[in-house]
Amino acid sequence: MKNVIILGAGMVGRAMAVDLSKKHKVTAVDSDRNALEMLPGRHNIHTTFMDVTDTAALATVLRGFDLVISAIPGFLGLQTMREVIDQKKDLVDITFLPEDVFHLIPLAKAKGVTVIMDCGIAPGLTNYIVGYISERMKIEEVKIMVGGLPKVRTLPFEYKAPFSPVDVLEEYTRPARFVEYGKLVVRPALSDAELVEFGGIGTLEAFNTDGLRTLITTMRHIPFMIEKTLRYPGHIGLIRILKEAGFFDKNPVVINNTEIIPFDVTSRILINAWKLSADEPEFTVMRVIIKGTEEGVRKEVTYDLYDEYDPVEKLSSMARTTGFTATATAEMIMTGIFSEKGVFSPELAGKNPACFEFISNYLQARNIHYKVTTRNI
After folding, report:
1. CATH class belonging to 125-316
2. Quick one: which of 5, 133, 178, 269 could link to 226 by a disulfide (CB 3.0–4.6 Å)?
């Protein structure tokens, strides 16, 4: 039994706390008392009210823990990661950091810690898959599509956010990077929308987002890579209207002699409009298509995942698929299956068959399954 601390007690943080508490001692930290109050009672989880931006308090709280999981908003991620490394604690991070954190590799090695970042479903599980296949196939093309959606389509947005709306809006505004003919290409987020059919779901709309993340660096030998987010058709049109009208701007505007930032106001409004109820039926869908050559034969390998809200544990599918990929990674570190020191992305660990199989088995044991289809092309 290990002693694990989880920074962030939102939907995903709760899922991770519930999962790990069945085997380990778990402490959840958050600056939202309401989020913390949802944890005790059902599970043996300790809670601590704290603001992670208070570095002195964070350093004190981290003492005595074997591993840290960070599930905080992206804009707080880098500072927190550096502080965790300074405290010589292993770290699993699901924060959607905008910064490149590989510059922290020397620090992590000097402190003797293991950090694996981007450990959600996408980036995260998708990266594990690409890393695993890259050791078996000369990959020519990777296409990743992922989305989390409510089962009940409620106008106008037909969307609910299982995590911070701020991070969702970052996904909608951050330029999308992908690889084409071996070159880095940057296009606006929300661009190149296409309709895609999914069995049992119907038609969804896929559009460019900046989800390749570390794959652009670690898998630079792959000539074509792209990542897209999935939503119900029509959602993207509404978001474009808001974006083009200036609702996502981060430059202040003056109204009644008061400066406001449109992005902040929009985020606050959408927290309510996109709030996912604790027991609301929803689903997560993922498709990873990889084309390449294996032993002289051109093949296409497709990973399809579909997961739904768990009414027993009362956990959303996005919280499950994101959170359990992270807890699987944490368990992989704590059991010594992955023991290298430094800062790593999931695809680097996924190159090791033992690591990939551990992650897959861990998810399957929690009823998260993917289907693998291979065909010659």
Report:
1. alpha beta
2. 178
